[in-house]
# Entry
Amino acid sequence: MCLAIPAQIKSVRGLEADVEIGGVGRSISLWLTPEAQVGDYVYVHTGYSISVVDEAEALESLRLLQELAESYSEDELFLTSGDSTQSGRNPAQ
# Structure
């Protein structure tokens, strides 16, 4: 399964942008969303902005991801692929 994470664009340099994801800054490509501007929220997947989204949708997605993360223990969040049976919980479900 692929997952795109909402991020807010902080600066743009041509087709590259600096974004903030959960308080962490990183550089991404805007090749797929050249219309994106500073202040916009974008979904980021594998270092590429794949769509521009409105702030309400981005914040709701972030809220849901936080809620999902809080539903797992720290041990479950950081399992390696071979450890899934130890918790009794299937991470793919």
About this structure: The longest strand covers residues 5-13. The chain has one domain: 5-74. The chain has a mean pLDDT of 87.
